[in-house]
Amino acid sequence: MPAAPLLHGIGLRQPHYREFRALRPPLGFVEVHSENFFNPHDAASQVLAAVREDYAVSLHGVGLALGSACGLDEDHVRRLADLVARVDPVRVSDHACFARAPWAQVGIVHASDLLPIAFTRASLDILCANVERVQDRLRRPLLVENLSAYLDFPERDFSEPQFFAELGRRSGCGLLLDVNNLYVNALNAAEPDPLQAVCGWISELTREAPPGLVGEIHLAGFSKQQGLIIDDHSRPVAEDVWQAYVHALDCLGPMPTLIEWDEHLPALSVLLEQAAHAGALCAARRETAQVAS
Amino acid sequence: MSAATHTTELERQQRLIAAIFAPQLDLATCPDVLQDGARREAGLAAYRGNGLAHARNALRLQFPTVLAMLGDDAFDVLSARYWRARPPRRGDLAWVGEELPAYIATVDSLDAWPWLADCARLDWAIWQIAGAAPPCMTHADLQRLAAEDPAGLSLQLAACTARIPSAWPIVTIHLAHQDAAADWSMVRQAILDGASQTAWVWRPQGDAAAEVRLIALEDAADRWIAALAAGASIVGALDAAGEDFDFATWMQRALAEGWLDGVATPVSP
């Protein structure tokens, strides 16, 4: 029987380029921030082209601002489409957020951040229209990631899992399930049992979502800053997040899983150890499923 | 979706954007949110800080000379003022510094450093050229150059080159900030003398892995390149450059370094 494909990956960041290419570690994929590779002529794009020869690449964007009521930046969509054509990625993703809006005399500005959207019907309509626009341009489905949000709007027509289930049903996109974001939100909401809150979220999603909605899982670490838990990808994955991840695998089955680390980047070996742990949990879930069947 | 509900979402988003870019944190400007009190303030502060931090980190990479001249604290103050005065228009932070040189020229408190805006223009040109398209001069271009009347031909400067004129010694200032053993008395004297320089910036053969290079142009070469950039014919550009200009030597280096994109019909004589 052929070996099962590896499902774990890491976010590849510039300080690790040289070591990564020399080491060529066993991974199912690597993920990069799309915007860092929009320019086809710079050195980073050369590195990505070389990495692509050995690995599947997942393109993860932070700038589309898919939930923006004022619409998308067509130039950004064009640059993403060009990148997708160059890289032929295994997945393309961005966030369920807004960042663009008209402001004062300036015109449309971009906040360079992932700003929260309301879980209302109007917001869902906006997100669906923008996701469909990008998917039509890329000619492939997107994955849309759930946010860590530091402010929430009181008006809502859906729970968050219902919102993503409906988004997937209507637009055909998938969900990039960020388990750490769920945990950060639970901590900031002062949930009495944050782990239980996260597992409840995932269970609700499993009940509500069309089959196969989730296409990838993100795991990361967080820090506490000025009274808030910030999803800054600056630490190892927390123990509770690992437990929530196991619950997600139980609900969803083995899943491509990424370790994200952006701040206080550790040695590559640390990142690979975390990814290997995710891979081992995936493999264990796969064996359990095979025994059961 | 009705127009009214779309407008509701648009206004909600506009209010949050306005609260993020406002000069001071003001909870009254924040749209209605579930959180209240200190938790609301912390949430809004996080968003006000995140975007600015992302922009500041990008600006530090894009303007190393300005950063070195101002120091960390003053640069961060400048970044914050710039972020609010000229908010980003794009979701790609590679462009966040696009308007900083022009903004610096408008900041009264920087009047004591009148060369700063031009140094920022040079930093930005270097940042842009690091990712510019490589030169695309072809054999056919060279054949045209050899066979046709130079009065009917112009040379196209490559995208991976830039000419930055300044009333200040911007090349001397830039290079000094990259040199641990720089002779600062010479830099000061060049500024006091009002020594103007035009920087010529390029990436050798457009090689993505190569360091961007820069030199201060001699007057004749500056006039030559300025004329080419304006679309002059080769003959017209030679007239502009004057008798001191050595065309053969310049052309040899231009081909070796990749300064040219090709041969075209001039837009002016």
Describe the structure.
The complex is a heterodimer of chains A (293) and B (269). Chain A has 293 residues and is of the alpha/beta class. Helices cover 43% and strands 19% of the residues of chain A. Chain A has nine helices and twelve strands. Chain A has an eight-stranded parallel β-barrel, surrounded by four helices. In chain A, strands 5-6 form a two-stranded antiparallel ribbon. A two-stranded antiparallel sheet of chain A has the order 10-11. In chain A, strand 1 (8-11), helix 1 and strand 2 (29-33) form a beta-alpha-beta unit. The two termini of chain A are 16 Å apart. The model of chain B has no long low-confidence stretch (mean pLDDT 93). Chain B has helices at 3-21, 37-62, 64-70, 72-85, 100-104, 116-129, 139-147, 170-176, 184-192, 219-229, 234-241, 247-257; strands spanning 154-157, 161-166, 197-202, 213-216, 260-264. Helix content of chain B is 52%, strand content 9%. Chain B has 269 residues and is mainly α. Chain B is elongated, with a radius of gyration of 24 Å.
Strand content of chain A: 15-25%
Question: How many E strands of chain A?
Answer: 12
Shape of chain A: globular
The proportion of residues in beta strands of chain B is 5-15%
The 3D shape of chain B can be described as: elongated
Give the end-to-end Cα distance of chain B, rounded to a whole number of Å. Answer: 58 Å
CATH superfamily grouping of chain A: Divalent-metal-dependent TIM barrel enzymes
Biggest interface in this structure? A-B, 53 and 53 residues
Quote the CATH topology of chain A. TIM Barrel
What count of helical segments of chain B does DSSP give? 12
Largest sheet properties of chain A: 8 strands, parallel, barrel
Helix content of chain B: 40-55%
Structural class of chain B comes to: mainly alpha
Low-confidence stretches of chain A: none
Q: Count of DSSP helices of chain A? A: 9
In round numbers, the mean pLDDT of chain B is 93
**Largest β sheet strand count, sense and barrel closure of chain B:** 3 strands, antiparallel
